[in-house]
Write a structure and sequence with these properties.
Its EC number is 2.3.1.222. Helices cover about 20% and strands about 35% of the residues. With about 210 residues, the protein is α/β, with parallel strands linked by helices. Strand 3 and strand 4 form a beta hairpin. The chain is elongated. It starts with a helix and ends in a 6-residue tail after the last strand. The structure holds zinc ion. The site of zinc ion has 3 residues, from strand 11.
């Protein structure tokens, strides 16, 4: 009898965890810099923390840059730390249009064939050959959550986001499993605006068993 009770409690706990909502982080335009590009843009400086992000070790830096495309300029673009092997610029589709570039929707790090841009600081400028993308919507989670939700790394699923009348079913949400990261869905500002998100305690509901 005791054993049965324990099993019932365990499956209830699993059920609650499987149906819990996923916190949403809205990504505004930002830049990840390589060590080389950072040193060129900010000679003699180190990248300093302005605000820690939810993901452990990740932060918004105090340093900002200007992005200059063929048709327009974006000022005060935040650098996100830590530094990375390759420089990557993430903008929304609206901002790409303002800059006058055709940025593809990609997962982070998939920069092959993406357009370049000029990155300008108060000290110098760097011309990037490639690296501007619109980030593909995705959810970070650890292996335990992946097991609970029944998903694998790189799988695409559906997530219901927002409140009526602006509720949106986002398809093709890519699962990224990483033991270092915590459960969080990343959307860009175009996606967040479409779903009427406020940037305060927004959440999404994973549609269990969906195939994106
Ligand atoms: Zn992310």
């Amino acid at each position: 009898m005791m054993e049965c009770d324990a099993q019932a409690v365990a499956s209830k706990v699993v059920d609650v965890l499987r149906h819990r909502k996923v916190p949403i982080g809205i990504s505004n335009r930002h830049v990840h810099l390589s060590e080389r590009d950072f040193e060129q843009l900010f000679p003699g400086q180190s990248l300093t923390v302005d605000k820690p992000l939810l993901q452990p070790g990740h932060f918004a830096a105090t340093q900002t840059v200007t992005l200059k495309g063929p048709k327009g300029v974006l000022n005060n673009v935040r650098i996100l730390g830590p530094l990375r092997p390759n420089t990557q610029v993430e903008v929304s589709a609206t901002q790409a249009r303002e800059l006058g570039i055709k940025a593809p929707v990609r997962m982070s790090g998939e920069l092959e064939g993406s357009p370049g841009i000029q990155i300008i600081s108060n000290f110098a400028e760097v011309t990037l050959e490639q690296g501007v993308i619109v980030a593909n919507r995705h959810i970070h989670m650890n292996s335990f959550d992946a097991l609970l939700f029944g998903v694998d790394d790189c799988q695409r699923i559906d997530v219901l986001v927002g409140e009526p009348p602006r509720t949106v079913l986002f398809k093709n949400v890519v699962i990224r499993v990483d033991p270092q990261l915590v459960l969080e869905m990343h959307l860009d500002t175009d996606e967040a605006n479409a779903a009427g998100l406020t940037g305060m305690k927004d959440t999404g509901q994973i549609m269990l068993g969906s195939k994106g």
